[in-house]
Amino acid sequence: MSDVRFDDKVVLVTGAGGGLGRSHALLFAKHGAKVVVNDLGGSLQGEGSGETPAQKVVEEIEAAGGKAVANYDSVSEQAGAEAMVKAAVDTFGRLDVVINNAGILRDTSFKKMDHDAFDAVLNVHLKGSFNVTKAAWPLFLEQGYGRVIMTSSAAGLYGNFGQTNYAAAKAGLIGMGQTLAQEGAKYNIHTNIIAPFAKSRMTETILPPEVLEHLDPNLVSPLVAWLCSDECTSNGQVYEVGAGLVTRLRWARTGPFAVVAKEGLTPEQVRDNWETIESMEGHTVCETIQDSLGQFMKHIKA
Ligand code: NAI
Questions:
Q1: pLDDT class for 273, splitting at 50, 70, 90?
Q2: Annotated active-site positions, please?
Q3: What is the pLDDT of residue 1?
């Protein structure tokens, strides 16, 4: 089997000055891609800025014989997102892949969460991924090719204490990514979503060293690279990845408990059938919205 290669491909990785983004950028470059290394260079909370992180990753790529250019714009600004896409086109002549990875944290319980903490996190993760993908989309449509990765999180999938802002943004990226997958399919634009688990400045203060040593970001980037390769046909899928584990997720549906629509439904019927509704035994899996609505339609016609 041949290697997964990105020769002649241009990849934009946001938030690539450290952690997972850096690892993605280095891997793409190693496999032949020209890389736009974007990073605002601020703190974990999204304060301040600096050119050093992105520039250092560019130097690392160049030292290994690869090609890269740095960009220091913020994903949360429309103009910034447009500038990073322009940097790809101006420097390397095209853009093929967008890895939406930039992120910040403003964790606090919902009781203490102020509007600024909510908006700041939504602006970087959710609006930022919209801004960058939106700026790249016309190029992807025109060339009939594009690959997009949305970086979600276990917090978005399952919720997490102290992360109402982050979890909302990360869950939003799943909906955005799955919708883009449907809109992009006929233009050969694929969008997939990852929920990674890796050592970075986001996790190194909350996880013990004996766990962190198994969480090299290099265990996440190979999935990202494969999803963005020409050969991979996956589109609109959600993967959990980290610590050497790679897995695909889907919604599971219980029961169903069902009544005839025209006969109505009472709270007592729901109560009396709660076990059927709650039990995962014999669950079905919906792959698409058609699968999901199909079950309702079948019930209506029955
Ligand atoms: P990180 O903090 O090392 O990386 C995030 C990068 O984004 C930083 O270098 C930061 O400067 C940059 N950034 C922040 N705001 C930006 C903006 N407005 N414009 C451009 N760049 C900006 O953390 P890590 O862990 O590498 O995070 C990468 C992504 O993975 C994030 O979206 C994060 O939410 C997600 N993630 C990470 C997990 C983990 O286990 N490390 C778990 C689940 C999700």
A1: very high
A2: 166
A3: 77
For residues 153 and 170, is the Cβ–Cβ distance under 8 A? yes
Whole-model pTM? 0.97
The letter for the amino acid at 99 is: I
Residues touching ligand 1 (Cβ under 6 Å) are: 14-15, 17-21, 38-42, 44, 46, 53, 74-76, 101-104, 124, 128, 151, 153, 196-198, 200-203
Q: What is the pLDDT of residue 143?
A: 98
pLDDT tens for residues 119-171? 999 999 999 999 999 999 999 999 999 999 999 999 999 999 999 999 999 99
Q: Which of 223, 212, 275 is nearest to 247 (CA)?
A: 223
Q: What is the DSSP annotation of 166-187?
A: HHHHHHHHHHHHHHHHHHHGGG
State how far the Cα of 28 lies from the Cα of 61, in Å rounded to an integer.
10
Q: Pick from 27, 39, 207 the residue to mutate for probing ligand 1's pocket: most ligand atoms within 8 Å of its CB.
A: 39
* Most ligand 1 atoms within 8 A of CB, residue of 101, 106, 212 to mutate: 101
Task: Provide the CB-side half-sphere exposure for 59 (13 A, CA).
Answer: 7
**Alpha carbon of 262 to ligand 1 centroid (Å):** 50
Q: Can you list the pairs that 296-302 forms with residues at least 24 positions away whose Cβ atoms lie under 8 Å?
A: 299/256, 299/258, 299/261, 300/261
